[in-house]
Amino acid sequence: MSTYDFNGVDIDWEYPATDDREGREEDFDNLPKFLSKIKSALKQSGSHSGLSIAIPASYWYLQHFNLKKILKYVDHFNVMTYDFHGAWDTPKSWLGNHLNSHTNLTEIKDAFDLLWRNNVDPDQVNMGLAFYARTFTASSTGCIYPGCLFDAGGPAEPCTDAVGVMSNPEIIRKLGSKISSGDLDKTAAIKTLKFGSTWLTYDDIDTWKLKLDFTRSQCLGGAMVWAISQDTSDGKFSKQLQEATGYKSKGVSTFNRTTSLGGGVFIETSESEANTDVSGDQCKWTNCRKRGKGCAENWSAVENQSSEKLTDLMTDDTGCDDDEERTFCCPDGVKHPTCEWQFYNVGHCIPGCGPTSGFEVASSKRSCSSGYAQTACCKGDTKGLDVYRQYKWYESETNCARDEGDKPCEWDVHFDSLLVESWDGSGDQTCYDKKGHRGERPLCENTRDEDNPHFSNCYWSDDYRLGVTETVTTGTCRSSCPNGKVKVALNSKDNDCGKGTSAYCCDVTASYDDRDIDQDNLEDLIKEWVEKPTCPNIKFSDLEKGKLSSRSLDAMALGPDGQLLDLTKREPS
C-alpha cells in the first residue's frame, strides 16, 4: 500500500449467503467482522486506510449484506448499478425474457431506496457506471424495443468473447459512425441501438449527464466505473465522463495516443519535477529487536563515538521490551556519520546536542538519574544524514513545549513548517511550557530546501507487530514502523495502547529534475521522426544527431510482443 501510494482497498464479494453463489448462512455475520479486521489493519498504514465495498443493486442479493454493521467500517459503498438485465432473463425467470436496459435509471432509483431505508449516508455512496453493453437477440425483427421478447443474448464479439456482452470499443468497431445515432431515452437515461436482430443499450456523455444529475439530487459521494479496461485505446469514454462530471483527471487529460505505449495504455506526460522514494539511502533506527541482533542484511551499525559510552554501537531501548533494543544503521555503501550519545555525565544526563554535535536523532533516559534524557547526535557530510538536515526540534528538555497560543514553528526562520508534535519529543523527553504546563515538543521543517530529501507519508503507528487485533487498547505497543519507513519520534501519551509507545513513521522522498535542458527538443524530434522517419541536420549538435541516428528502432515503440508499432495506425482495442 505504501510502496505504490494506494488510497485504500476495495472489497468485491459476489455474493455472501446466496445459494446460487455457494454462499453460507454465516456469511451475513462474518462479512462485517471481516471488514472490521481489514479496517483495523489499514489504519496501521496511516493515510492509506481507505476501505470501500462493492454492493449489488438488487434486493435479492443485497438482503444478505448487514448494511447497518458494515457502514461502521467502510468509507464508501460502490453500488453496482448495472447488469439489471441480461441473457439470464429467461422465460422462466420472474422478469421474463423481455428487452430492457441493464443500466436504466428507473431501476437505479429503486436500488438506492434500499440503502436509504438502512440509514446509509448518501455521501458514502458511489453510483456504478458501465463501459459496456448487454446485448440481446430479439425474437422478432418486427418487435425490437423495450418490452419485446428476446431469444438469447447477442452474439459473442472477438474481444469480450462472451454471449450477450459488448465492450464500448466493440460497439464503435462494429457500428462506426452510427455510434452517435443511438436513440436517447431520457427517462431511462440510456441510448439504444439495433442492427439486424441485435438490440443493445449503452451510455455516453448524454446519458451520463442525466445519471449524474440524479446523483447530485441525492447528494451521492460520486461515481465509479466498471471498467476502464473496456474503454477505447484513446480514452474516448473516460474523457466524456470527465467532461460530464467536471472532475479533472490528469491521466485522462494528458493522454496522447501518438506517444502512448503498446496496447494503448494511459500515460502521464513528462513533468519537470517528480518525487522518488529514497528511504533506502538514509541512515535510520531499526525496529525493536533482540539485543545484539543489530542491523538488517546489507546495513551496518553506526559506532557510538561518545567518550563515556555505555555501548560501542548507537543503540536505544526506549519503548522496547526488556530484552530488546534499536540500532542506528546505515545502508552498505553509505558513509557512516559521526554519532554519539551526548552528555551521559556519569548518569547525571544533560539534555541536548552540543553546538557542533550535529542533528538530534533520538533521546533516551537509559541509566540516567537526573530526570533528563541523553540525546543521540549525528554529524558529517554523508548523504545518509540528508533528510535529518531538514528538521530541527524545538529547544531542549525540559523547556521544550511551545507556549499556548504560539505557533509551533515561529522560533526559527529556517525551520518554519511543522512536521509533528510529540509528548516524548525525539524519544524519551519531558517537555513543559513557560507556565510549567506539560506539553508537546514540535519538530519543524525547512521547506525552502528543495535540493535534499524530506519526510513524507507520515503517521503514528501504535503497534505494527500486532497488525489486525481487537485488543489493541489492552496490548503493548512496541513503537515499530513498517518496513521501509523511518522512525522520527516516539509518543507514550495519547495513543490507543494500554501500555507502550507509538512511533511516528515516515517515508523519505526527494524531488528531482527528470527533464534535461534538451528534453523538450528531444520530444519534438521524436514526434517528428514518427511522422517522417528522417533525422534533421539543423538545430542539434553532432552529439545529439549521433545519439538519435544510432538509436535502435526497438527503443521507440514496442508492442506487447516486441514488434515495432506504427503508432499512427493502431486500432482501438
Task: List its salient traits.
chitin binding; alpha+beta; 16% helix; secreted; single chain; 573 residues; disordered C terminus; GH; Glycosyl_Hydrlase_18; elongated; 10 helices; carbohydrate metabolism; five-stranded parallel sheet
Largest sheet: number of strands, sense, barrel closure: 6 strands, antiparallel
% residues in beta strands: 15-25%
Form type: elongated
Mean pLDDT: 81
Please tell me how large the radius of gyration is.
31 Å
The tally of beta strands, per DSSP, is 27
Oligomer: single chain
Q: Uncertain segments of ≥5 residues (pLDDT<50)?
A: 253-274, 464-474, 512-517, 536-573
Helix content range: 10-25%
What is the distance, rounded to the nearest whole angstrom, between the alpha carbons of the first and last residues? Answer: 30 Å
Structural class: alpha+beta
**What count of helical segments does DSSP give?**
10
Explained architecture:
The two termini are 30 Å apart. The strands form six sheets. Strands 5, 6, 7, 8, 9 and 10 form a six-stranded antiparallel beta sheet that branches. A five-stranded parallel beta sheet has the order 1-2-3-4-11. Strands 12, 24, 25, 26 and 27 form a five-stranded mixed beta sheet that branches. It has a domain at 279-451. The protein has helices spanning 27-43, 59-62, 67-70, 105-116, 168-175, 205-217, 236-245, 250-253, 519-531, 542-550; strands at 8-12, 50-56, 76-80, 125-130, 132-138, 150-153, 165-167, 183-185, 190-195, 198-202, 222-226, 273-277, 284-285, 289-290, 299-301, 315-316, 324-331, 338-342, 359-364, 374-379, 391-393, 417-422, 441-445, 454-461, 476-478, 486-491, 499-513. The protein contains ten helices and 27 strands. With 573 residues, the protein is α+β, with helices and mostly antiparallel strands. Helix 4 links the parallel strand 3 and strand 4 (125-130).
